[in-house]
Amino acid sequence: MGKHILNDPKTAISDSLKGLAFLNPTTELYDSTLLLRSPAKDRVHLLCGGGGGHEPAHAAFVGDGMLSAAVSGQVFASPNAGQVEKALARLSLAKGTLIVVKNYTGDVLQFGLAKERYSATHLDSDSVRMIVVGDDVSVPRSQGALTGRRGLTGTVLVYKLAGALAAQGASLDDVEHVARVVSERCGTIGMGLEHCHVPGTEKGEAYLKDDEAEIGMGIHNEPGIRKVSPIPSAAKLVDEFLTTLTSTSDEERSYLPFEKDGNEVILVVNNLGGLPELELGVVVKEAAEWLANKHIKVKRAVAGSFMTSLNLPGFSLTLLLLPREGIPSPASASSSTSSLSVTSDLLVDLFDAPTDAPAWKWTFKGEPNMKVEKADERKAAKKEDFPPRVRAATDSKLFMSALSEALKSVIHAEPEITRYDTIAGDGDAGLTLKAGAEGIQDAIGANRVSDTDVVAAMVAISAVVEKDMGGTSGGLYAILLSALSKGLLEAARDQDAKEATQEVWARGLELALNTLYQYTRARPPSRTLVDPLSSFILTLSSAPSDPKTLSQAFKAAKEAAEATRDLDAKAGRAAYVDQEKIREAAVPDAGAWGVWKLLEGVQKVLSQ
């Protein structure tokens, strides 16, 4: 997508930082740096930064318990050393500052230069230290031998855990030690469905085809390790990513020391900027199931936007492998006075520690788990389950044939109905009807729909429609079918009939329509499914004993559905759409056309 809501691409970063400063009054904006207004003088401070375009990273993680300051460059461009030096000067250095940057050349050089300049001009030169985070496992060892792995979402875990320790008053040695342990035990891999678009640049041709995805794509539009087509399912992508992250046999990409069993992790599911929350939830579900199946215990988990690439539609998975035993400070670090041993419990406690950084997501303070209660399997509809009350007239096979043909008709018409609804609605009518029809087909195949009792059949079909369709149309159909089951029974009793004759159907449908009117304000002509439904029922009810009436009812329903092409919508979601555009498109209402397609299937069987 090449469209953006900005004032000017040149001021996008500064404008965004001002908005963030407004939302978080504990911070202030200085030059291109967002920092705490009153940084504590008795703590270690974490300073980070990098190019813009990765929001909420980095500035939205400034807050008590995480970062003290974040320096922003322009989109995908590192800030310069002078900007970083200004940020250092604004922080209290009583207990030191730890600079945390992603492993990208520009960030390392500019923040490193600022650190060296500080060291050259201050006696307490060791009070500013720097850690470079590289957690991208898609980069093979041979390719990244000199540059190392790219820094991705694992960087945010460093902010959170090291920042939490700093907030507790720990020494610079201890904070740095935790940051290094987290960095070294993190792995991340991601994918994208397309490159992101950088504001102010021309919109080019699509980088990926409609049926392509790219694995290992970087967060600055760097190409990934390979393109795949067709786009794999969420389950296959998660399987590949977690297999890569947990592998110990891949010489190029086995970076984390997983063992055969007893592994514990922290999981981060990251939205790279343009993935709907719906799809992110699917990824979370697949990751949770995969890890459970591999007996890898997830001690903590979090999902959301942490390290993005503007509007890139994709996601990444990050695992922090928790240590089995405490990891002491390296004995070779002669300058280190840290006696802290980094344990699994410590890292989990730091993950749970409170922070007021606005971008950090709420997380459950305990081990996540997924409880899915399985619905009781419905019994097959047997004669003893549904005693015959109203038999199908003349031939039960004819009833089932008509029902089956109606379902086939609406399933076949799905693309057509979807197209109509895309123009004049929300685009889901065809898929909703298809889902309901396929659910009924499954119920018929499992003998859950009676072929001898039309009342029991309507009850069973209504339950399927309610479950499988959902939405407005699903609710309307479910109410209609439930009311129809009652109407058929009442009509049969009133007429002292044991079979569903045309008169019984006509009276039952009329009662069902009146019930439906209690739950919708739509009345014909309204450009809704009520139009053909009402025309069919009222025509059939006008002379229910006349054999010709049925064909007249089918004709009336088709004409009513066709007539919706020229109607303004008075109800339903189409009522909120520009009516002039609907008239120009000259398409029938999707719901009305769906009703007609169902009736058309019935007509095909009955007219033979």
TrEMBL record:
Q: Which parts of the sequence belong to the DhaL domain?
A: 397-604
Q: Name one Pfam family in it.
A: Dak1
Q: Which Gene3D superfamilies match?
A: 1.25.40.340, Dihydroxyacetone kinase, domain 1, Dihydroxyacetone kinase, domain 2
Q: Which residues form the DhaK domain?
A: 8-360
Could you state a single Gene Ontology molecular function term? Answer: triokinase activity
Give me the reactions it catalyses: dihydroxyacetone + ATP = dihydroxyacetone phosphate + ADP + H(+); D-glyceraldehyde + ATP = D-glyceraldehyde 3-phosphate + ADP + H(+)
Instruction: Tell me which UniProt keywords the record has, alphabetically.
Output: ATP-binding, Glycerol metabolism, Kinase, Nucleotide-binding, Transferase
**Pathway(s) the chain acts in:** Polyol metabolism; glycerol fermentation; glycerone phosphate from glycerol (oxidative route): step 2/2
Name the active site residues.
220 (tele-hemiaminal-histidine intermediate)
Q: Which GO terms describe its biological process?
A: anaerobic glycerol catabolic process
GO cellular component assignments: cytosol
Residues that coordinate or bind substrate: 51-54, 102, 107
Keyword ATP-binding attached: yes
Q: Domain of life here?
A: Eukaryota
> Which family does the record claim for this protein?
Belongs to the dihydroxyacetone kinase (DAK) family.
Q: What does this protein do?
A: Catalyzes both the phosphorylation of dihydroxyacetone and of glyceraldehyde.
Q: What is this protein called?
A: Dihydroxyacetone kinase
| Taxon lineage | Eukaryota, Fungi, Dikarya, Basidiomycota, Pucciniomycotina
